[in-house]
Write a structure and sequence with these properties.
Layout (H helix, E strand, L loop, with lengths): L1 E6 L3 H18 L3 E7 L2 H10 L4 E5 L8 H11 L4 E6 L5 H4 L6 E4 L4 H17 L4 E3 L5 E3 L3 E7 L2 E6 L3 E5 L2 H7 L4 E5 L2 E4 L3 E5 L4 E4 L4 E3 L5 H10 L13
Parallel strand pairs: 1-2, 1-3, 3-4, 4-5
Antiparallel strand pairs: 6-7, 8-9, 8-12, 9-10, 11-12, 13-14, 14-15
Helix pairs in contact: 1-5, 2-3
């Protein structure tokens, strides 16, 4: 789920933008939501600091003691990965907006067509950048760190997180080649996120993951998996792991 936050000093425009986004999310089947909107810069700053926000759409001229660019600079100090999309009727501000690693700049009045083009690029970018999101099917994006393991179940591929699962149809081998290096094949039917392993029970070839999830090590993949695992740099405490 991609969480969007909107900030604009004009409340009627704020509500209009919220409505356009909802329509575009539905039209394009984007797994996204507007989780917060406000015409107060400091309310937005407080929200983004304390909640999960992936995209911030904000006006540059907020009629406040800080501009949209200054707000973005403050947000960037604590959130290095958030996307900024600026909207403004003042074209002279365009170059300033890119100083805070802006994804896009949309002149006002923002049209649905122009915003849709930006959203399509944004979701494509989020899918392909490392250490961010993985497309688990139907344009649904999930943070790669939240995925614990992936299972091949007949013609389906199932992505498991601590709380949810997502099903899609894809080639297991092709998927394996596209995944970040933290995902390692451990079984003919399993790929595990080694950063989420809490323990390995080698006598039963069982991988225990954060929470209640578990998956398994297959004989064909055992040696390679344990070699990758032992030589990796992982933060989890594996004192009880027995490799012999």
């Amino acid at each position: 789920m991609m969480n969007f936050v909107i900030c604009d000093d004009n409340i009627s425009y704020l509500n209009k933008l919220d409505k356009i986004l909802d329509q575009l999310f539905l039209k394009n089947n984007f797994d996204a939501q507007v989780c917060f909107k406000s015409n107060q810069a400091y309310e937005v700053l407080d929200y983004v600091k304390n909640n999960n926000a992936n995209v911030l759409i904000l006006d540059i001229n907020l009629k406040s003691d800080i501009s949209g660019i200054e707000l973005a600079e403050k947000v960037r100090q604590t959130n290095k990965n958030i996307y900024f999309i600026f909207t403004t009727g003042h074209l002279e501000y365009a170059m300033l907006a890119y100083q805070v690693k802006t994804f896009d700049y949309i002149p006002k009045p923002v049209t649905s067509e122009r915003l849709e083009t930006t959203l399509i690029r944004l979701f494509d970018d989020a899918t392909n950048l490392p250490n961010k999101f993985i497309n688990v099917g139907n344009k649904t994006l999930v943070k790669q760190d939240d995925i614990q393991y992936i299972k091949k179940d007949g013609m389906k591929i199932v992505f498991y997180t601590d709380k949810d699962k997502y099903e899609t149809y894809n080639s297991f081998s092709k998927l394996e080649n596209k995944l970040p290096e933290q995902f390692v094949r451990c079984h003919k039917s399993y790929i595990v996120n080694i950063n989420n392993i809490s323990n390995i029970e080698s006598n039963t070839n069982t991988i225990l993951l954060n929470g209640q999830n578990k998956c398994y090590i297959g004989p064909k993949y055992r040696n390679n998996f344990l070699e990758v695992f032992k030589n990796g740099n992982f933060s989890n405490n594996m004192d009880s792991t027995n490799y012999t």
